[in-house]
Design a protein that fits this description.
The complex is a heterodimer of chains A (364) and B (250).
Chain A: E1 6-9, H1 10-20, E2 25-28, H2 36-44, E3 51-54, H3 58-70, E4 75-79, H4 81-86, H5 88-97, E5 101-107, H6 123-129, E6 139-140, H7 145-162, E7 165-171, H8 172-176, E8 178-181, H9 192-198, E9 217-218, H10 225-245, E10 249-252, E11 259-262, H11 265-280, E12 285-290, E13 292-294, E14 311-316, H12 322-330, E15 336-340, H13 349-363
Parallel strand pairs in A: 2-3, 2-4, 4-5, 5-7, 6-7, 11-12, 11-14, 14-15
Antiparallel strand pairs in A: 1-8, 6-13, 10-12
Chain B: H1 24-37, E1 44-48, H2 56-59, E2 63-66, H3 72-82, E3 87-93, H4 94-100, H5 102-110, E4 116-121, E5 124-125, E6 131-132, H6 151-154, H7 160-165, E7 170-177, H8 181-199, E8 204-210, H9 214-217, H10 221-235, E9 239-242, H11 246-249
The chains are: A alpha/beta (364), B alpha/beta (250).
């Protein structure tokens, strides 16, 4: 049943949303700031006929996810930045073998072990692919617990539709805070015996396929370069469709804006407050909030009021990673600046507002 | 006329890419013959490793998936969670299972995962061209131990089966050899026993095959079999290392 609004901690709401969206298998390894997710899954999945394994490592977890996904299961995994780094071998493998997976990165500051406070410095890791070879993973960045719940609820189906991992990229701030959320209804799930017909590529053994002895092989290796090139080109036809169909964003106050912030997740919420501060000082500011980070919502930038806007500011919890995509999307149409903190530090809205005013002052 | 011998339905009708004298072909065949005899071909999901047998799925006539290097036990654990009633196996070489994948195989055994691991121990990295493996014998030459493996530099060859047998969740571990018809028959019996124990849900099972790599050992196929008999079996004795008590099996 769809719930009325309940107050939930981010990580627990994420886990519940994944279950309600159809995920029945979770493989994880503890890492701050997302350890409530495996804890919740270990407790709740068995109650709905699902399975939880505490893996020996993130390498173990991603490969269990690959095996379960290749066998036609609906899998959810989560980790945080250094753990996601360990999973990259598997991400590349899953993309190559076209195995669906719903994954979540509750990110923290880096590089290295870094810290445990919120960060967005995994932008390159999640959007560029930390693994080897030509591949993409659609990445969605929620700015509230409710939005994360909605994306995770949709995620299992998206992963199956695209036969690719889908990543929800949030940060320790959203994971650790509490907000009221409305939880959607439980989606129906497949019985093991129904998998062979519903997922006509999954390894199930042919007895489940009514005597159809055509073997199913889920694989990545292609020794002949011609075959590998052909396979990668086929993957990229899919990614080209994804670029058209999965680009998502929200824009606010673009009409007549002098300055436009581009930011996602936690930082977008800070920018919204900065916009109010700027308005009180007579400066009109707007916001483009990418929801999909790959594909990057390039079209959003055509909505900018080029008659009034003098500068675009990429606001990030990193030394400036998304800014590269902002520059590509603008293609020289406007100057691009950075407003940032990193290492787990989060800017205040007055800091961001002051940065915008300094940028505008500098352009005079 | 009644046929007295037929090609097993467990193998596809395809020539393998393995070198002359390599025992992968024998190991493949006895595993698939057992699954055929047990009527399990349509009920089995296998996991191929990285190594020479990465393309085992071309020859083994069951649903299969590839795994990244060393990760087959994690992959098999995931498969078992989706299809708890199927027969699941991994097929892994010594680089895969005894080096890069030690964490995955150890923890699969710890969890008592109900799949069977087939461990091909030929003491060398075959696919990459004959580098030293964790199971290369002391004094044995390889392209990364050109004067022979030294204990000082590399330690002693690892005994995975003995190590894994010490884990409670591992219920059946046997080391077999493929150097003679008698040993091949013994190996086939071990494979059958492992699958039967898996079907009973008793826990993790592993069969180690002492195998050959004439190409990278620089030996003829016949000399390679003699090397297994005279040198490998001296360090890695064949036989049951651990098995369930009869009461548990019944």
């Amino acid at each position: 049943m769809t719930t009325d609004k309940v107050l939930m901690k981010g990580n627990e709401a994420f886990a519940e949303a994944a279950i309600r969206g159809g995920a029945r298998l979770y493989f994880g390894y503890p890492i701050t700031p997302q350890s409530e997710v495996p804890e919740y899954m270990s407790r709740e999945l068995p109650k709905v006929g699902g399975c939880f394994i505490q893996a020996e490592s993130e390498l173990g977890a991603i490969n269990m996810a690959y095996g379960a996904g290749a066998a036609g299961g609906s899998v959810f995994i989560s980790s945080s930045s250094p753990g996601i780094a360990l999973m990259q071998e598997g991400m590349s493998f899953l993309c190559s073998a076209e195995v669906p997976l719903l994954a979540m990165n509750v990110s923290r500051g880096g590089p290295g072990i870094g810290g445990i406070q919120p960060g967005q410095a995994d932008y390159y890791q999640v959007t560029r692919g930390g693994g080897n070879g030509d591949y993409h993973i659609p990445v969605f960045a929620p700015a509230s617990i409710q939005e994360a719940v909605d994306l995770l609820y949709e995620g299992t189906e998206l992963a199956q539709t695209w036969r690719n991992p889908i990543m929800v990229f949030t940060d320790g701030m959203v994971g650790q805070m509490m907000e009221p959320v409305k939880l959607p209804d439980y989606k129906p799930v497949l019985k093991p015996s129904e998998i062979a017909a519903a997922r006509n590529w999954a390894c199930t053994g042919y007895t489940d396929r009514g005597g159809d002895k055509e073997r199913r092989v889920v694989k990545s290796l292609r020794m002949q370069p011609e075959k590998l090139e052909e396979h990668v080109e086929k993957l990229f036809e899919k990614y080209a469709r994804a670029e058209k169909e999965l680009a998502r964003w929200e824009s606010e106050n673009l009409k007549g804006a002098e300055v436009v912030f581009v930011s996602f997740g936690t930082t977008a919420r800070i920018c919204r407050e900065a916009i109010e501060i700027l308005a009180s000082r007579g400066v009109k500011a707007g916001l483009i909030r990418p929801i999909s980070l790959w594909p990057f919502p390039n079209k959003a930038f055509d909505e900018i009021d080029f008659g009034t806007t003098k500068a675009v500011i990429s606001a990030e919890l990193s030394m400036g990673q998304m800014i590269t995509d902002v520059q590509l999307a603008l293609n020289g149409r406007l100057p691009v600046f950075l407003a940032h903190r990193t290492g787990g530090m989060v800017p205040t809205s007055p800091e961001v507002a002051a940065r915008a005013q300094a940028v505008l002052e500098g352009l005079k | 006329m009644k046929p007295i011998f037929e090609y097993t339905k467990g193998m596809t009708e395809m020539s393998t890419h393995y070198c002359p004298g390599c025992t992968h072909g024998i190991a493949h065949r006895i595993i698939m013959e057992v699954l055929d005899e047990m009527g399990e071909l349509g009920n089995t999901i296998g996991v191929a490793p990285i190594g020479c047998s990465v393309m085992a799925h071309q020859y083994m006539n069951v649903d299969m998936c590839e795994a990244a290097h060393g990760r087959a036990p994690a992959v098999a654990s995931g498969i078992r969670r989706v299809h708890p009633d199927k027969t699941v196996f991994t097929y892994q070489g010594d680089g895969d299972l005894a080096s890069i994948g030690t964490a995955e195989i150890v923890h699969a055994a710890v969890r008592g995962e109900k799949f069977t691991a087939f461990f091909i121990n030929n003491g060398i990295y075959g696919m990459t061209g004959g580098q030293m493996a964790p199971t290369t014998l002391i004094g044995q030459r390889s392209t990364t131990s050109q004067d022979g493996r030294s204990k000082e530099l590399n330690g002693m060859p690892i005994k995975m089966s003995e190590m894994l047998a010490s884990i409670d969740g591992a219920v059946y571990v046997e080391r077999v050899a493929l150097d003679s018809p008698a040993h091949v028959r013994q190996a086939k019996k071990a494979v059958r026993k492992a699958f039967e124990i898996q079907k009973k849900g008793l826990g993790f099972t592993l069969i180690e095959f002492l195998s050959t790599c004439p190409t990278n050992w620089g030996m003829t196929p016949v000399k390679a079999l003699e090397w297994v008999r005279n040198n490998v079996m001296a360090y890695y004795p064949i036989g049951v290392i651990k098995e369930p008590k009869e009461a548990e099996e019944a």
